[in-house]
Amino acid sequence: MTLIPEQPKNTYRVTLDLAYGESRMDNILLNVLREQNENEKLKNISRSQLKDLFNKKKILIKGQRAKSSSALAKGVTYVDIVGF
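^ thats the sequence. predicted structure below, dont judge the formating
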């Protein structure tokens, strides 16, 4: 049984289910955001806008600030984007 962390208020949640680990979070997250159809603003986000969200500490994993260069492990990771 996988424990799903509580989603903070005023966030958009992205669930990443990776078949293998990734060395950088920003590239994977950008691709996933562009492929989703639930949030039009995030679907059309630019690379520099995503970088700005990381710099402003608005991207969280388990409630902790994520860095664009953070590595991602194989399996499920819940990413919350504050303000969406």
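The two ends are 28 Å apart (CA to CA).
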